[in-house]
Amino acid sequence: MTDVPSPETPPFDPLITAGLKQIGIEKPNDVQNRVWPELLAGRDVLLIAQTGSGKTAAYAAPIFDHLLREGQERQPAAPRVLVLAPTRELVTQIAGVCRQIGRRLPFRTRLLCGGLPKDAQVEALAEGVDIAVATPGRLIDLLMSGACRLDATTLLIVDEVDQMLDEDFLIAMDEIIPHLPARRQAMLCSATLPAQGRALANKLLYKPVTLEFAGQTVTPRRIKQRAMFVEAEEKLATLTRLCSETEGRQIVFLRTRASVDQTGKHLRKAGLSVAVLHGDLAQTARQKAVEALRSGQARILLTTDVAARGLDIDDVALVVNYDLPEKAETYVHRIGRTARAGKRGAALAFCTRDDRLLLRAIEKEIGYRISIVS
């Protein structure tokens, strides 16, 4: 029987522990220290914790413990573990973490999402997959075509649930659930859990342990937040000056894909190293943009809300809300791209005269006033 983790030692096979060290985890944080024993004991878990709290490792390491204990041979087209997440960027990141943790183990992790060749994913499934990390849309496509089946899936993880609680996702889950075996272990992860999320949890989880870390993880108060009132016609020049004067990695959020492209062209002409990321780009281009920022090839990432959650890049010095989001909670997720893993960070919001109500809604969401700078 696996020991309950202490704050000092991960409770896993040495090969899993070595994989955790590969991603910089030598001892569990608060989230991992609570989640690991519950998953290792075979319980269903409902985890409510902000992005940046270490929850990917909280479920990824137990995935490999689960596979080692099962000891079954992989079957064609039938993953034993399924991880669902809302965006291509997030599933790519999760798959990367799984591969790093499991690099010394004989288990295959495969990515199933749009924007990448479907034929290659079908071929990978046919060869046998232990861990499938998927977006719901592509998974349904593969299920309907017979390229994938879930009758051998004994562990289900659904990440960033609150980002997926629209009608399309709920319909997608209703299509996926019948393909899963009745007896399985499951975990749902979410930053918040509105009523639809509770209803989904009731469908997927059996007598779950609820672990809530609101207030213990990354919060807006760990981030130095400022707002600047700018005339609409002056925003581009102000951003150019700000990016030129700020050292370190920066992520700039804009409202539309067209604005991302246009602003990228302007900043490049100003001599700045820029990568752009939005939903119109092919998956390979999106991955290159993220890697450009991560590697230092680009210092500035211009993006839409496709990167507002799940994107985990170390040492982002500044997040700029070039356009304020329509939903106040989206602001919180955007600025969460800085101050990762307990570090501090900075965020600046551009506000036009028309943005005052949006700014007030954000302040109501976070519970305090944001400092105004000139």
Q: Roughly what is the average pLDDT, rounded to an integer?
A: 90
Taking the alpha carbons of the first and last residues, their distance comes to 60 Å
Indicate the low-confidence ranges by residue numbers: 1-7
Q: Mind summarizing the main beta sheet? A: 7 strands, parallel
Determine the CATH topology of the largest domain.
Rossmann fold
**Helix segment tally:** 13
- The residue fraction in helices comes out at 25-40%
CATH class of the largest domain: Alpha Beta
**Topology order in helix (H) and strand (E) letters:** HHEHEHEHEHEHEHEEHEHEHEEHEHE
Domain module tally: 2
Overview in brief:
By secondary structure, the protein is of the alpha/beta class.
Explained architecture:
- The chain folds into two domains: 14-212, P-loop containing nucleotide triphosphate hydrolases (Rossmann fold); 220-373, Rossmann fold (3-Layer(aba) Sandwich), CATH 3.40.50.300.
- The relative contact order is 0.13.
- The termini are far apart.
- The protein has helices at residues 14-22, 30-40, 55-70, 88-101, 118-127, 136-144, 167-176, 195-204, 235-245, 257-269, 283-295, 328-335, 356-366, and strands spanning 45-48, 81-84, 109-112, 131-134, 155-158, 185-190, 209-212, 223-229, 249-253, 274-277, 300-303, 316-321, 345-351, 371-373.
- The protein has 13 helices and 14 strands.
- The chain has a seven-stranded parallel β-sheet with strand order 3-4-2-5-6-1-7, sandwiched between helices. The protein has a seven-stranded parallel β-sheet with strand order 10-11-9-12-13-8-14, sandwiched between helices.
- By secondary structure, the chain is of the alpha/beta class.
